[in-house]
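Standup notes
- HV: blocked on the assembly model, inputs below
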Amino acid sequence: MTKRRVFFISDRTGITAETLGESLLTQFPSADFERVHIPFVDNPAAAARAVAEIERASRDDDAPPLVFSTLTDDAIQNTITACCPNVFDLFGTFIGPLEEVLDIKSSHSMGRMHGIVDTTTYDRRLNALNYTLSHDDGLKPNGLDEADIVLLGVSRSGKTPTCLYLALHYYLKAANYPLAEEDFDRSRLPPTLAKCRDKLYGLTIVPEHLSRIRHERRASGNYASLAQCRREVSGAEALFRTENIPYLDSTTISIEEIAATIVRDMKLHRAAH
Amino acid sequence: MTKRRVFFISDRTGITAETLGESLLTQFPSADFERVHIPFVDNPAAAARAVAEIERASRDDDAPPLVFSTLTDDAIQNTITACCPNVFDLFGTFIGPLEEVLDIKSSHSMGRMHGIVDTTTYDRRLNALNYTLSHDDGLKPNGLDEADIVLLGVSRSGKTPTCLYLALHYYLKAANYPLAEEDFDRSRLPPTLAKCRDKLYGLTIVPEHLSRIRHERRASGNYASLAQCRREVSGAEALFRTENIPYLDSTTISIEEIAATIVRDMKLHRAAH
């Protein structure tokens, strides 16, 4: 299959262009795409460089390139649109209709989304991240009062990445607590966790997958054996059911999806925007 | 000004709908929006609940609500479109034209973007995050050979959040090293850093802002004093200039923007997608 070059062009970070563009591309799993990211196209010189790159691809490739753009400056957008037949103007397509619905002119200012941040949001996000880092892996179990969410699960079930994502993306104070043998033997929650029962959420994982992940971390020992992984996972799941803790299998889903599911299930909200 | 309710509706996490929707809303800074997120609208019952919520808002609010949707199922999208005049179909708007350009039918499968992930990508991301966590704040300076990027800066200049974002979003192994008095006195790079000079990137910050952040962490002491912050920041910037290390002022920009700027300046790429 012919490889198609895909350009993501933005006047700031390119996160918006990439997010929607990639989301659209995944609907064409049989196609073969080669991505080129061109962020910070916020002046005529940068626009000219982008145009030159797109024109080179149009000349060299067997199929014409695609362009996903989020440009707030009309003149720059027009330069890009003029150089290629397949430009998807992700931003401009909606800004006109939105102006009409709202009956307000848009500010046409660049990169407000990921640009300058107000101090309250900045502090909230940083506090969430600092809290999350210092309450990873059962550290400071006495500080759980302040948590927005406490994740439980066996070692390497995905707690830490999920907590960090919850902090960075949703500005939530996300603690986590590793479940271990003694918790299963007792088949009750440790007292520190019992006190914050309404913030608990479990992560589980397919034992075979867990064993593979643990093997990669430490080559040998009982820790990564399939038998041990099976025992721990079944102990954790039994505890979640006995204690009525909602839980999710993290095996085949992305960190984004685990985090969004937890936010929905626990009726949490982004702490600030 | 009348408050406008804004719905973000998606069949999966809602990240795409939120990213583009928020990006569009920031172009209307004078308007007053109230956000409602409805993720995982992937079945008729969930669609009916979403419709009921939108209809309630249409009835109760002074101005009709806006809806940003990314739904891959046409029937569900039609249900939403039928209930409200101001639906912005962020996904469907482009999928038809894309099918035409590519001359392929789209798969119409839900949530591929943030859904199931392949093992290589998953491992790469997790390895990047594990590396980043264990090379935070000058830990394990002998492991810098493996780093994709090494951030330098004074304490609380934004190194840790940026590194975590680089790991989670760009799958990069991002180490960081705190610059302190002895580095400024010597006004040369410590030997461990000199060895990986081409991976170094500096963060700086306005001393007043740094002092405020440090005050919030520890109420007293010289550490947070403006004089101390000024001394450290000017020492760090002098070192960046002497050693020809590219650097960025993190004071007023978001973590997303700092990360995207570093990726661009250092000619890095997302390690996998």
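- HV (later): unblocked. Residues 3-102 of chain B form a domain with the Rossmann fold fold (CATH 3.40.50). Chain B touches chain A through 73 residues (CB under 8 Å).
- Next: hand off to the docking folks.
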